[in-house]
Design brief:
- The protein has 362 residues and is α+β, with helices and mostly antiparallel strands.
- It has three domains: 3-178, Beta-Lactamase (2-Layer Sandwich); 188-282, PAS domain (Beta-Lactamase); 292-359, Winged helix-like DNA-binding domain superfamily/Winged helix DNA-binding domain (Arc Repressor Mutant, subunit A).
- It is built from 13 helices and twelve strands.
- The protein has helices spanning 3-12, 20-31, 57-61, 63-69, 101-113, 148-187, 206-214, 230-241, 292-299, 303-313, 318-325, 329-343, 348-359; strands at 35-44, 47-55, 88-92, 116-127, 130-139, 191-195, 201-204, 218-219, 226-227, 247-250, 259-266, 277-282.
- Strand 6 and strand 7 (201-204) form a beta hairpin.
Length: 362
């Protein structure tokens, strides 16, 4: 593999973690070194902490031994004062002005315990307090610093390494935001589902799974959203395609089992792909999930008052709640009166509405 092919394979590995091993193996062979490792590091107090690490085959096999010293705070390279001083750098253990004689001696002894010789690297800053580095180590017993040939290759590699580092950082950011979004969507009590025009399910949260398992007029069998009645199936398809607005109503076996569906977002019709839609589902059959402790905290209620309030939101009457809790109905009504005063409302319906507006969909 020539240098141009090697650089091309590095770009190809940006979005595919498993391909990094082959890329680093090729760079290691090109330089004739024992190991090649790619790392992204972030500054934390006085240390540098690796949060992305890609290793060559040998370094992967020896990862436990290397991590015990080479990838630990014992290594002087993980002090914050060793960060790149400029935007880019090509440095080595022997050349870096960040190291004292004692640091170099610590590096020599520590790396030897890992089966490695001295190191050299190229690095670049990717954000304030963050940088990436590709570090290479000589074989144990080979004490040479970078050669002119090594330096020439690293200078050729540096601009491409900088671009690959930027792309990798963006992908990591996208993945982090996606993870946060999915976590939010899965934790919300609002039932959400992503499906295509043929009602094939691509993703749904826990609230949707519960709803699909509760209502008789639909199911999620075979990875597809299915409706008992053909006209309901066609109605939902039309809504997803935008042919009948964004909402529709699917009847159940009784008034409490009605399903309301709303398309929150759909792909453009002319966009290549599966034309996915994000859909919200709700039904009177499912009471909103509200935590009594949150109600007590936000509205200044006692736990007894908050428990009464959450059961009222769920559809219970005061009489039913009293029987459920084994207390006198008069006691429950006194708790309701106190809750109304603390919430600043005069009627039970206003209390339920205020709580729902604040908490029902959190």
């Amino acid at each position: 593999m020539d240098d141009n092919q090697l650089i091309a394979t590095m770009y190809g590995a940006v979005g595919e973690e498993l391909r990094w091993t082959a890329v680093l193996d090729a760079i290691k062979l090109r330089l004739g070194v024992a190991s090649a490792v790619f790392q992204s590091l972030v500054a934390h107090k006085d240390d540098l902490v690796p949060f992305i690490c890609r290793r060559d085959t040998w370094s992967t096999q020896e990862a436990e031994r290397h991590d015990a010293w080479a990838n630990s705070p014992l290594n002087p390279r993980f002090r914050r004062d060793t960060e790149p001083r400029g935007q880019d750098e090509i440095e080595s253990d022997q050349r870096s002005l960040a190291f004292t004689a004692a640091d170099r001696e610590a590096l020599r002894h520590g790396l030897a315990t890992c089966g490695l010789g001295p190191g050299f690297w190229l690095g670049c800053k990717t954000a304030p307090g963050e940088h990436t580095t590709m570090i290479f180590h000589r074989h144990l017993g080979d004490g040479r610093d970078m050669t002119e040939a090594d330096l020439g290759f690293l200078n050729q590699l540096l601009p491409h390494f900088r671009q690959a580092s930027s792309l990798l950082g963006k992908i990591a950011g996208y993945e982090a935001r996606l993870s946060i979004t999915e976590a939010f969507m899965d934790s919300t009590s609002l039932a959400l589902i992503v499906c295509d025009r043929d009602l094939n399910i691509r993703w749904m949260n826990a609230a949707t799974e519960g709803l699909v398992g509760t209502l008789p007029q639909m199911s999620g069998s075979g990875g597809r959203l299915r409706f008992r009645a053909m006209d309901a199936d066609l109605m939902v398809r039309d809504a997803i395609r935008g042919q009948r607005g964004d909402t529709c109503r699917i009847a159940g076996d009784g008034p409490g089992q009605v399903l309301h569906l709303r398309v929150l977002r759909r792909d453009a019709a002319d966009r290549p792909g599966d034309n996915l839609a994000l859909v919200a589902l709700c039904s009177p059959a499912t009471a909103p999930s509200i935590n009594a402790a949150e109600v007590a905290d936000l509205f200044g209620l006692t736990m007894a008052e908050a428990m009464l309030t959450t059961h009222l939101v769920g559809g219970m009457t005061v009489k039913d709640f009293a029987a459920h809790r084994g207390i006198a109905e008069g006691t429950a009504r006194m708790q309701l009166k106190s809750a109304l005063a603390k919430a600043g409302v005069g009627r039970q319906a206003d209390l339920v509405r205020q709580v729902c507006q604040s908490l029902a969909r959190l």
